[in-house]
Amino acid sequence: MPFDDLMLRHRARRRQVLLALAGGSALTAAPVWGRTPEAPLPVVATFSILGDMLREVGGERVAVTTIVGVNGDVHRFEPSPRDAKALLEARVLVLNGLDFETWLPRLVQASGFAGQQVLASDGVPVRRLNAEEGHDGHEHDAAPNDDDAHGDHAHDGHAHGEADPHAWQSLENGMIYARNIARGLAQADPRNAAYYASRAESYISRMRALDNEIRTGFAAIPKERRRVITAHDSFGYFGDAYGIEFIPVAGLSNQAEPSAADLARIVRITRESRVSGIFIENMTNPALAQQIARETGVLMGGTLYADALGPADEPAGTYLGMVSWNAGRLLYVLRQAGN
């Protein structure tokens, strides 16, 4: 049965139950949260990176549900009735926007969600893509503060001026995310506003310390060696922050399959340029990267994390752990290339 039909049926059944419990009063058809002062605030994050940020900022006073979990692919995701139920029961929804969660408007509508939406990327300097090169145009605008940031068109089109949604790959942007999340939680739960603000600032302090450490590490690498190949164009913000050139095999979405001409171009660039390493991503098939490595002899650098965290017991199981892991892998390979 199609997802939208399932959602409509689920909502109709729930409305009937609420009406029955209230003796037929239509007033109870609106969402009823029934939260006691001691109960944590029910919140939903669209994917694992935002889920971890929510837990860091919200602490014990939020109950977080993450729609797309660890090692999950937001680009290929299809929502289920379980996701709609979680969203319907939530007070707050935290999303990335920037056209990342293309399935979200349909899920919000189908679920009947009536809570507060928090756009985590609101106010970040947006990286724009060049249509001809599929690469960074270095055109920076503030992220919109409305739902236009997550419309229904696909990522693969590379329209001129298309926004790169992977803004969390910059720790400076991560600090903006944390403050936006704290403000959103405070608006939904004013009684705990100071608690959320304090936790956000503590979290930001850890981000700032890691950012300084990473900058120091990359500053010791000659700029001409800071060139690597990745599966798709998801590390542009990281590259801008630390002076790394990432050459993507595919486009923004890891659904995009590169053509033979694309592969030939990447192989040529790899041979002609001083590329230090080739990296795979935790959600992508490594076959293409391995093929390029075989044809060029460039070092395989291991796994980077782009759109999703790893399991909780792994180094990249948190946002800060993910950024630290990515930087560590890159630094190791860039240093090896200089030996």
TrEMBL record:
Region of interest called Disordered, as start-end residue ranges on this chain: 134-165
Subcellular location: Cell envelope
InterPro entries associated with the record: AdhesinB, Bact_metal-bind_prot9, Lipoprotein_PsaA-like, ZnuA-like
Keyword Signal (UniProt): yes
Gene3D superfamilies tied to this protein: Nitrogenase molybdenum iron protein domain (3.40.50.1980)
Record flagged with keyword Nucleotide-binding: no
UniProtKB keywords: Metal-binding, Signal, Transport
Family per similarity comment: Belongs to the bacterial solute-binding protein 9 family.
PANTHER family tied to this protein: HIGH-AFFINITY ZINC UPTAKE SYSTEM PROTEIN ZNUA-RELATED, METAL-BINDING PROTEIN HI_0362-RELATED
Protein name: Zinc ABC transporter substrate-binding protein
Organism: Yanghanlia caeni
